[in-house]
Design brief:
heterodimer; A: 112 residues; mainly beta; 5-stranded antiparallel sheet; 0% helix; B: 114 residues
């Protein structure tokens, strides 16, 4: 079973703090990883993608990938109440299917 | 607008009925997908389909069947609906060769079986 697992939530942080979201995956053949944000009652929207070991920064968001440890993380700096949502980690499965396999999500609440 | 659109947005039906959910994308993508999201927010792949192959998740009951009249449409048919089928169903699409860029999701269909 190829799985993506996220650290258990929910996670609460005060406004302005750094929120850290973590994810591990079991498929060593996975090459591409994604973080989606899903507001309540809405569809998932892509916020970050990462393909290579190391860090990738986009504004307040930093994605980190460690293929040796099979670990993906998302850091949100200067967290805002508008960041409150469920964050879904996903990986592209190896092989021809190119299917996104999602973790169970981490619910983040940023407290004003 | 360019998008992945699903209809209906809400669907309430009785056990045993047969229903369909429609999905259309005008992004020119090669591959379309159906995902089921349960009450715990877990998104699970049901089908992926492009003009080359249909890949079915082995855990999906055969009461569920995708129908693709053309590259821009992938409808979901569900026969003999059960209470456990209640969930939000998301359609998505991606350019096949660029699956690594992630998917564009439709707005979802909330199915309630009573």
């Amino acid at each position: 079973q190829k799985e993506v697992e996220q650290n258990s939530g929910p996670l609460s942080v005060p406004e302005g703090a750094i929120a850290s979201l973590n994810c591990t995956y079991s498929d060593r053949g996975s090459q591409s990883f994604f973080w989606y944000r899903q507001y309540s009652g809405k569809s998932p929207e892509l916020i970050m993608s990462i393909y290579s070991n190391g860090d990738k920064e986009d504004g307040r968001f930093t994605a980190q990938l460690n293929k040796a440890s099979q670990y993906v993380s998302l850091l949100i700096r200067d967290s805002q109440p508008s960041d409150s949502a469920t964050y879904l980690c996903a990986g592209i499965s190896s092989g021809s299917a190119r299917q996104l396999t999602f973790g169970s999500g981490t619910q983040l609440t940023v407290l004003p | 607008d360019t998008a992945v659109s699903q209809t209906p947005k809400y669907l309430v039906t009785q056990m045993g009925n047969d229903k369909s959910i429609k999905c259309e994308q005008n992004l020119g993508h090669d591959t379309m997908y159906w995902y089921k999201q349960d009450s715990k927010k877990f998104l699970k792949i049901m089908f992926s389909y492009n003009n080359k192959e249909l890949i079915i998740n082995e855990t999906v009951p055969n009461r569920f069947s995708p129908k693709s009249p053309d590259k821009a449409h992938l409808n979901l048919h569900i026969n003999s609906l059960e209470l456990g089928d209640s969930a939000v169903y998301f359609c998505a699409s991606s350019p096949y060769e660029q699956g690594g860029y992630g998917y564009t999701f439709g707005s979802g269909t909330r199915l309630t079986v009573v």
